[in-house]
């Protein structure tokens, strides 16, 4: 099992593709540039099975409909953000200069922490609010990765100054749900470079009081 990182759009939001040995794949946070994203999938002869959203801020959902319609696949988001896809005021796009960004409602709502199984992919859905009310992280033990969205970054944490943000809750989410993962786990963040749980435990100033 392998993963691909594709920074997309004007603020370079990381979309990810997780691929199994049958060339089936899961798509995480296709935030922009849907045509180019679909071309990449076609070029590598991949078979998408689903779109999984870590949260529904505008920079993570901009290409959702273009990708969903191309491959006829379902979209997953946490129930706390079920209305964010259709509402620019909730997803934040009305605050910035990128126009009103929306997508059709999700096909599946994540309601609680659970194990999500799609074909050969098995992931633990971790509820990690704080950056937004419905933020989730997807931990895939087989690939030794966690798709953390905008909860945890290399040397930093997600912003909490947008509506629904809560820094104390985010710190608690990171400590309780992410830093308890195996230290060798690779953290695939919504922006910037990848990191590891061990590295953030040792050196992240937001988590260690440096």
Write out key terms for the chains shown.
210 residues; alpha/beta; Metallo-beta-lactamase, Chain A; 6-stranded mixed β-sheet; 14 strands; 30% strand; globular; hydrolase; metal-binding; Metallo-hydrolase; hydrolase activity
Question: What this model shows, in words?
Answer:
It is an enzyme of class 3 (hydrolase). GO terms for molecular function: hydrolase activity. Its EC number is 3.-.-.-. Keywords: Hydrolase, Metal-binding, Zinc. The protein is of the alpha/beta class. It has seven helices and 14 strands. The N and C termini lie far apart (36 Å). Helix 1 links the parallel strand 3 and strand 4 (47-52). The protein has one domain (2-208): Ribonuclease Z/Hydroxyacylglutathione hydrolase-like (Metallo-beta-lactamase, Chain A), CATH 3.60.15. It has helices at residues 34-43, 58-61, 64-71, 88-91, 167-178, 197-203, 205-208, and strands at residues 2-8, 13-19, 24-28, 47-52, 75-78, 108-110, 114-118, 121-127, 136-140, 145-149, 152-153, 156-157, 186-189, 195-196. It is globular.
